[in-house]
Every structure is written in C-alpha cells, then in structure tokens.
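WARN retry 2 of 3 for item q-0093 after timeout on previous attempt; input resubmitted unchanged.
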Amino acid sequence: MGEVTSVCTFKRDIPGKLLRIESDATVDDGDTILVTLADYGFKTVEAVAGYAHTTTDSIIVAEQPTTSVTAGVLTITVGGATDNLKRVYLVYGDSN
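OK item q-0093 returned
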C-alpha cells in the first residue's frame, strides 16, 4: 500500500463540480490518492464514485473506495481486492 497520486491523471469535467481521476494499471487495493480540494475549485466534497477496469482500457465496474477529508485534502483509499488494475474515480463537489 502506498500513495499513488503521481500515477494519476486529473481532469476537471465540470470545473468546481466534477473531477475525474484515472490511475494507471499499477494501482493496488489499499493504495491512496491525495486531492487538494482548492486546486480543483472545491470547497466541499459531496460524493466519490469508484470504478475499476476489468481489463485495462475496457469496461469498468463499480468498486467503492474509502474516503476522508482533512484540512482540505481528500484522501481516496482504493477499494476492492485486486492489485494492478486501472481505476477511475468521479469526485462530485461544490465550489460554494
């Protein structure tokens, strides 16, 4: 288990409302991704939805992470029970 933020791509699909995070295929269950909310225009997080690729760059299935917010930093802990999968997280937030 380790911090894997550097192997993730962050895309603001709707600035201040929706952030999409995609990892590479080396991410393991229990790894963490750190998101500084202010960097993406969020004041709060409303929901985080997690998905794993069944085969890299193929179909994704729901895989819920564990999350926490401390001092404006969202920590996403990868869920599931399978190592070395590409993951996708949708972070829904509010800029108000």
